[in-house]
Amino acid sequence: MRGLIRTLYSPCALLTMPVEEFVAGWISGAVGLALGHPVDTVKVRLQTQSGYRGILDCVIKTYCNETAVVLAPVDLIKVRLQNQTHSYGLRSPVGGPGAQYRGPVHCGACIFREEGVLGLFRGTWALVLRDTPTMPVYFLTYVSLCRAVTEPGREPGPMTVFIAGGCAGTVSWALATPMDVIKARLQMDGVKGLSYHGVLDCIRISVRHEGPWVFLKGLALNSIRAFPVNAVTFLSYENILKLIR
Question: 133: Cβ–Cβ under 8 A, 6 or more apart, which residues?
């Protein structure tokens, strides 16, 4: 936790972060990502598609209609892959029934070929606007909760880390959800037959067509996913750091 506090209050500390902290952060982040990816897939589809009656219906249809696990290192490619089985009037499939892409590499290559370099950066401003205000809230919530229930001079216990990490993730994603909706829609820009001229235009069109509640799409799933993912992430980070130091 001390490493996180140092990084939080000293931006330059990122440049001098010890190797063990980097390794612990990388492994714990990978664990959290693997745990939360299935729920993230359902969340993105609910935010960008209108053919589902709710969370359970989306889960059932996704499970019944697809057998491949979508893995993507880039957020744009992840969103495109998560949406590729929905019919948007795309060309003939190449990766299976309803699928447009063979995988992450093929997806990235197709985007680059059809939309150019800028196509790979769709939704970047929305991503920045989503993460910039929520990351400080994320770490401050974690650190504050750990300090509040831990005696001065002592390290927080595993249960404290688990709960504080889960709460931090839930709070930050609750704040991030509105811009997360806009980001996902901008990343699908053009694919759905809709065209946005930036973040503000996407907000205006979304509100006009679906009302202000559109910004809450995926909130329940974000919250459900955020607690266990971030609880495990922080718990893994703290324990791995203790093991390798």
Answer: 175
Q: In whole angstroms, what is the distance from residue 241 CA to residue 212 CA?
A: 43
pTM above 0.70, yes or no: no
Task: Judge contact between 118 and 112, C-beta under 8 A.
Answer: no
Tokens describing residue 78:
């992840």
Of 18, 3, 82, 73, the C-alpha closest to 45 is 82
Q: How far is CA 198 from CA 12, 124, 125, 186, 216, in A?
A: 32, 10, 9, 8, 20
* Alpha-carbon distance values, 66 to 61, 120, 171, 192, 245 (Å): 8, 25, 32, 20, 43
Question: pLDDT digit string (tens) for 132-155?
Answer: 888 889 889 999 999 999 988 888
Among residues 29, 34, 31, 2, the alpha carbon closest in space to that of 18 is found at: 2
